[in-house]
Amino acid sequence: MPVITYRQALRDTLRAELARDPSVFLMGEEIGVFEGSYKITAGLLDEFGERRVRDTPIAEEGFVGAAVGAAMLGLRPVVEIMTINFSLLALDQIVNHAAKIHGMFGGQCRVPMVIRTPGGGGQQLAATHSQNVELYYAFVPGLKVVAPSTPADARALLLAAIRDDDPVLFLENLALYNVKGEVDESAGPAEIGRAAVVRPGTDITLIGYSRMAAVAVEVAERLAAEDGVDAEVIDLRSLRPLDRRTIVESVRRTNCAVIAEDDWLTYGIGAEIAATLQEGAFDWLDAPVRRVAAAEVPLPYAKPLELAALPSAESLATAVRQTLDAVARRR
Amino acid sequence: MTEIAMPRLSDTMEEGVIVAWHKRVGDHVDRGEVLVEIETDKAVMEFESYESGVLRQVLAEEGATVAIGAPIAVLGNGSPDSGSPDPAGGPARPAAATPEAEPVTVDSAQRTATAPAPVPPAQAADRFRASPLARRVARDLGVDLATVPGSGPGGRVTRADVVAAASRATPAAEPTGPAEPTGLAESTGLAEPVAPERTEAPVAPRGERAGVGVPARPGRQWDHRRPAGVPDEPEPPREIPLTRVRRVTARRLTESMREAPHFYVTRTVDVGELLAFRAQLNARTAAAGGTGKVSVNDLVLKACATALRAHPEVNVSFAGDKILAHQRIHLGMAVAAENGLVVAVIRDADRKSITEIAAESRELAGRAREGRLHAAEMSGSTFTVSNLGPFGVDSFTAVINPPEAAILAVGAVREVPVVRDGALVVGQTMTATLSVDHRALDGAVAAAFVRTLAVLLADPLRIVA
Question: Is this entry keyworded Plastid (chain A) (predicted)?
Answer without folding.
Answer: no
